[in-house]
Automatic annotation (TrEMBL):
Protein name (Swiss-Prot/TrEMBL): Protein dachsous
Phylogenetic placement of the source organism: Eukaryota, Metazoa, Ecdysozoa, Arthropoda, Hexapoda
SMART domains found in the cross-reference section: CA (SM00112)
Region (Disordered): 114-142
Coiled-coil region list: none
Any one GO biological process: homophilic cell adhesion via plasma membrane adhesion molecules
Compartments where found: Cell membrane
Residue span, Cadherin domain: 18-115, 116-227, 228-334, 347-445, 446-550
Molecular functions per Gene Ontology: calcium ion binding
Signal peptide: 1-18
Alphabetic keyword roster: Calcium, Cell membrane, Glycoprotein, Membrane, Repeat, Signal, Transmembrane, Transmembrane helix
Amino acid sequence: MGLPRWLCLLAAVAAVAGEHERHLDVSESAPVGTRIGFIGDGSKDSGPPYLIVPVPGSAVDTDLIAEQNTGEIRTRVPLDRETRASYTLVAIPLSGENVRVVVRVIDENDNAPTFPSPSMHVEFPENTPRDTKRTLNPARDLDLGPYNTQRYAIVAGNVNNAFRLSSHREKDDVLYLDLQINGYLDRETTAAYHLVIEAYDGGVPPLKGAMTVNVTVLDVNDNQPTFNQSRYYATVPENATVSTSILQVHATDVDDGDNGVVEYSISRRQSDKEGYFTVDRHTGVISVNRPLDYETREVHELVVVAKDRGDQPLETTAFVTVRVADVNDNQPDINVIFLSDDATPKISERAQPGEFVARISVHDPDSKQEYSDVNVTLQGGDGHFGLTTQDNIIYLVIVALPLDRESRPNYTLSVIATDTGSPPLHASKTFHLLVTDVNDNRPVFAAPEYWASVSETAEPGTSVARVVATDEDEGENAALTYKMRDPPPLWFQVDPQTGVVATRDRMDCERDPEPTFVVLAVDNGRPQQLTGTTTVHVTIHDLNDNEPIFDQSFYNVDVSEDRAVGSCVLKVLSNISAFYLFS
């Protein structure tokens, strides 16, 4: 639709006419219909009516009302400076200069600072130095000047005042924001912060916008593991099998991730070099690794190490005292010391009741006392030996009854020790006791008398008889030597070793037809030799080698007349016989 003809004529005139500007202001909060002002002031133009020519793109037609007949300009719609800050139109009067009207929209504080997102995330290692910064998203405010963003503040979540804010404005009029460390971070104390940051403009009262900054404190391996006890105690029986669990140590590390993962080990350099125990690297359970022996070692001291898995691992130690409990697994140990001159098991048959044979001491390896509570008994000997003690510590084997080697040369004795364990264990030591000889038996001949005969013509050295003696003693005490008792016989001798009696000279039956002599058997005992005796009777068989010879050649005898018949009147002797003369 075209303009009225007169307006077209005015426009043509305006094209050659002069122009001046008129500036009007209106608040962006002005209600619809608010009078902004009038086009002309009557100084340079003829006043209304006007031909209103909007500047292309200025939205005058949509947002403002410009009255042609009155020159009044009003708001058609609510204005928004942030959408359009000014409007421009050209008013052409009937005469005079054209009027370029510029309507400026005056800013009101109708926009709050706004962050680009309601939250954001930042990270700081816990060892970050103080004053270190992290740039945060700044808040933006569409308002101008004092109504723009003026300051920031942390209004919540700043535990222990760990952070502070700093800001600076750059040429784009944006107030940029930094988060700074205000003190020292410790992830183990506070692992995360949820900071509520508000941005304020310069209005009265100020408008504000908020953003939550989630701060994660990254772990640094700055804490060593900590045991829940500095020293642990445990008791384990000595017969515990390998892999038996004893106790569990526990350490914690307040660091995060691998820095807080604890692994356990036993310091072999400082303890348990023999490897009697082992510890599970993950659970801390200490177990038996080798058979234990109370008698070898009663107490084991372990140094257990807890180490984290950080790149530069930290560690700590705890002490574990393991006591090995005794189990009655050892028989008593019997020690016998024989009290003979050469420390061998023997006793003289001369020993009197009460004399000592051996000293016995008993030790139970299951007991740490030098002398254990052990019951000791003696078996064997048929009552010839006994056991005595004054203190139940040292025992003595003694002679109880007289001994006789010749009746019994040795005894088998057994010492039995029984401990007080449950169940009790027994040990025994058996020894063979030799009864040594004493020269207490004389040699005894097989017969108290020996009878022999020999011809008087026997040559010297002819065996006549053999005497035999025995001695119940032994050794030198039973070594016999034969000899003739003084005075020795004229015609006989005895072999000192064999006891053979032989002639040593020619015999004369007429001189001694039945010689008798005593043979001695002498032992070789010391210090005193004992002797046995026997009598040897020898009959010498005569040969007719001598004529009779009277002892005188003439005999004269007187006989009384009253001599009885048969009375011996005379005895005549010859070298071979005797003759008697009777009345």
